[in-house]
Design goal:
Length: about 575
């Protein structure tokens, strides 16, 4: 390809709305252009990389016995009524009507579609296990699409669905996919960590998210300094050393605390640390009010709390509910004498002695509060958010915090969808059984953005060899100089004949402009030919990843490039695939 032909409109500046590096660089390098909020056009360079990611995914899914299908984007509402999910996602689901007024949605995911297919086509245990996958656009009307394609409203996902006869079969496929994902991301040159995550709405009982570590990541994870425990903070467990109990219990006492509402103000006023306080947070949903108790220096994890009381979600109670239940405005809630709501206490609260809490009356707090003696929670269960610095459940390590971009997730679904849609198979005895399902997603477009997020510097993108839109860019200092033109045209031909993906920068631009564009777009290998190098029939080679530069004879350029490309791609292969 010649730069004079390539549609790669590089930019010096980008719109202010581009906040994170990958969003800026993908616009500046001419990989994509915004068509509407959260909706993007992929230009030639961006689409070449996307196709390489898809090729790696296909290879690993096929190697794991996945069979590729293509499912419809337009999904009939009937199936979502059968799964009872038509209204679960509110405005996030793109809904539309056809000319006969029938309702459809634009597929945000494909559990319903694939289960409806399989319930018709699978009848016998002999047809199991079955792994079907697609690489297809998905549509989710995000409230705030941002960070470019990181959180888009139209994006490309690989979604694979596994169908097994029993839990053992699902477990086997779950871990087969888990390891296939490790290979996919390694081959994409992406550093990821699988973390335990909360199954949330999707149901089922086990799920891991593959997080690409990056400061710009929206997900917060913790991982152990000692063992390989890693979890999304939504569900992360941790251990904290509770204060030593003296066994000397103070009497319960009310203290007047005019207008003291927060833990900080209370600490100031009473000269006591937050860790001596019981923070009481009221939550509610349409049919219950819950008081969550955690130590003053901890935070309530509302996902853990919702799961603890067996509901999908809970919201912080509003002022009116707080007044109604506690008899006081916000800031004075406490567990002693609290009625009309369920009291859920974190285990660390039950370790406390002579604690301070709200007094359920305006401007009143209580001291000498001893759990068990002065109040009995309805349930004691982990409802706090794990924090970096906590001890790991393994007992040896400390939890380290990091931010991640969720690029993949693997779920055990069990029978949630086969039950809802009646997808069964006959076993050896002719008994009808529900299919046991798993689902496994990779955000293809998000993976590309995550790679840029992890692989860039001030000059631009640094593509891993496996994903670079082209491997080599040949830059003549002056293409209008006959001798340079002859040499680089020949070089371009030889590289192309050797199967190397090469761009020739034949533009009538100053060398500096060409070098800047080459670094911005992030071609891994740059070969420069100019008057100086021509004297000795040499060329200068520069590696984008290390900045290393060296001069070699023109006659060695092709083999040198070929070897570098092979070695770089080989280095990204997981051990099992090396040296094949
Ligand atoms: C919807 C809308 C948004 C959604 C869903 C449904 C997320 C929905 C969860 C999943 C789970 C897995 C298969 C591939 C891997 C992920 N957002 N989820 O079900 F209607 Cl609007 O998609 N699906």
């Amino acid at each position: 390809m010649r730069m004079s032909m390539l549609l790669a409109p590089t930019l010096r500046e980008v719109p202010a709305e581009a906040e994170i590096a990958s969003h800026k660089l993908m616009l500046r390098a001419g990989l994509m252009r915004k068509a509407a909020a959260g909706i993007y056009t992929y230009l030639p360079l961006g689409y070449r990389t996307l196709q390489k990611i898809e090729a790696i995914i296909r290879e690993e899914m096929n190697a794991a016995d996945g069979q590729e299908v293509l499912l419809p984007i337009l999904q009939p509402a009937e199936l979502w009524h059968e799964s009872n999910r038509w209204d679960d996602y509110g405005e996030e689901m793109f809904k539309l009507k056809d000319r006969n007024g029938r309702q459809f949605c634009l597929g945000p995911t494909h559990e319903e579609i694939i289960t409806a297919l399989v319930r018709t086509e699978i009848r016998s245990y002999r047809q199991l296990p079955l792994l079907l996958y697609q690489i297809q656009n998905k549509y989710r009307d995000e409230i705030r699409p941002r960070f470019g394609i990181m959180r888009g409203r139209e994006f490309i996902m690989k979604d694979l669905y596994s169908f097994d006869r029993d839990a053992q079969g699902l477990d086997k496929n779950y871990w087969k996919m888990y390891h296939a994902y490790e290979r996919v991301f390694a081959r994409c040159g992406l550093k990821t960590r699988p973390v335990e995550a909360d199954p949330g709405a999707i149901g089922g009982n086990m799920t891991h998210e593959f997080m690409a570590l990056a400061e710009a990541g929206e997900a917060e994870i913790v991982y152990c300094s000692h063992c390989d425990y890693a979890a999304n903070v939504e569900k992360a467990q941790s251990v904290i050393s509770s204060g030593k109990k003296t066994g000397v219990l103070e009497g319960l006492a009310k203290v007047s605390t005019p207008n003291i509402r927060t833990v900080e103000e209370l600490g100031e006023f009473l000269g006591r640390p937050a860790s001596d306080m019981i923070k009481t947070m009221l939550y509610h949903n349409s049919d219950m009010v819950v008081a969550a108790l955690v130590r003053g220096d901890h935070a309530v994890n509302d996902i853990k709390l919702a799961r603890a009381v067996g509901v999908m979600e809970l919201e912080l109670a509003d002022q009116a509910t707080i007044e109604e239940v506690t008899g006081a405005p916000m800031g004075f809630a406490g567990p002693v004498g609290l009625k009309g709501c369920r009291i859920i206490a974190d285990p660390t609260v039950m370790e406390m002695e002579n604690a301070i809490s709200g007094g359920n009356a305006v401007d009143v707090h209580m001291t000498g509060v001893n759990p068990g003696r002065d109040f009995k929670p309805d349930l004691v269960i982990d409802i706090r958010t794990a924090q970096p610095g906590d001890s790991c459940p393994c007992g040896q390590g400390t939890l380290i915090g990091a931010r991640g971009i969720e690029v993949g997730q693997v779920f055990k679904l069990g029978t949630k969808y086969s039950q809802a849609l009646g997808a069964t198979f006959l076993d050896e005895a002719g008994e009808e059984n529900l299919l046991i399902m798993g689902c496994y997603g990779i955000g293809v477009t998000r993976t590309m953005a995550a790679v840029v997020e992890q692989c860039h510097d001030d000059d631009g993108i640094i593509w891993p060899m496996s994903l670079a839109p082209y491997h080599v860019i040949v830059v003549p200092i002056n293409y209008r100089d006959e001798s340079q033109k002859a040499v680089v045209d020949a070089l371009y031909e030889d590289l192309t004949m050797a199967g190397i993906e090469v761009v020739l920068d034949d533009r009538n631009e100053r060398p500096g402009v060409k070098f800047k564009d080459a670094d911005l777009i992030g071609f891994p290998i740059r070969i420069t030919v100019g008057p100086r190098t021509l004297e000795n029939k040499e060329a200068e080679v520069r590696l984008r990843s290390t900045g290393e530069e060296y001069v070699i004879p023109l006659s060695e350029v092709v083999t040198n490039a070929k070897e570098r490309i092979r070695r770089a791609i080989e280095a990204e292969l997981p051990d099992s695939r090396r040296g094949r």
